[in-house]
Amino acid sequence: MATNQPAPRQIRLAKDRRSLSLVFPDGAAFDLAAEYLRVFSPSAEVRGHGGGEMMLVLGKERVKILDVQPVGRYAVKLVFDDGHDSGLYDWGLLRELGDRRDEHWNYYLERLSSAGVERDPEGAEPAAPYDVLSSTSTATQADDSSGSSTRD
């Protein structure tokens, strides 16, 4: 994880609260599903305290992001509707989650399969990264225009 990763120029919470869009200064843009962000939370609850394998988080297909809170100039805290709010997503982690989304998601699906668990077929698939052709926003912003197995 890059500790000196520049801040995204834009952070936007989707109206349905099921994804977070990010645009970085170099033009890289990602639309990361709330489920993906939740199961890859940087919290000790998910990542563990000793650096071992991450906890396998289940049942988050329909999780939503309630709030995006800035933390200094280096991270955001995501508050999920399942009560989870203890992970700080720094710019390096968010960039990694965008850049390596397919690799991380496939790893998660493989872990589910190995555990004999299927994702809820009614749950939405995570959003794929997308390319932004142009962006006029230069300010980082959180925008909501709509006015183990861990199941916590």
Strand line-up in the sheet with most strands: 1-2-3
**Mean model confidence by pLDDT:** 81
Main sheet overview: 3 strands, antiparallel
Helix content: 10-25%
Count the beta strands.
8
Count of separate DSSP helical elements: 4
Structural class: alpha+beta
Distance between the termini: 26 Å
The poorly predicted ranges are 126-152
Shape: globular
Strand residue content: 15-25%
Helix and strand succession? EEEHHEEEEHHE
Radius of gyration: 15 Å
Question: What this model shows, in words?
Answer:
The protein has about 150 residues and is α+β, with helices and mostly antiparallel strands. Helix content is about 20%, strand content about 20%. The chain is built from 4 helices and 8 strands; from the N terminus they run βββααββββααβ. The strands form 3 sheets. The protein has a 3-stranded antiparallel β-sheet with strand order 1-2-3. Strand 5 (about 65-70) and strand 6 form a beta hairpin. The longest helix has 14 residues, at about 100-115. Residues about 125-150 have low confidence and may be disordered.
Characteristics:
152 residues, alpha+beta, three-stranded antiparallel sheet, 8 strands
Produce the secondary structure layout:
Blueprint: E1 10-13, E2 19-23, E3 29-33, H1 34-39, H2 44-47, E4 56-57, E5 65-71, E6 75-80, E7 88-90, H3 91-99, H4 101-114, E8 149-150
Parallel strand pairs: 4-8
Antiparallel strand pairs: 1-2, 2-3, 5-6, 6-7
What is this structure, in a nutshell?
The chain is built from 4 helices and 8 strands, in the order βββααββββααβ.
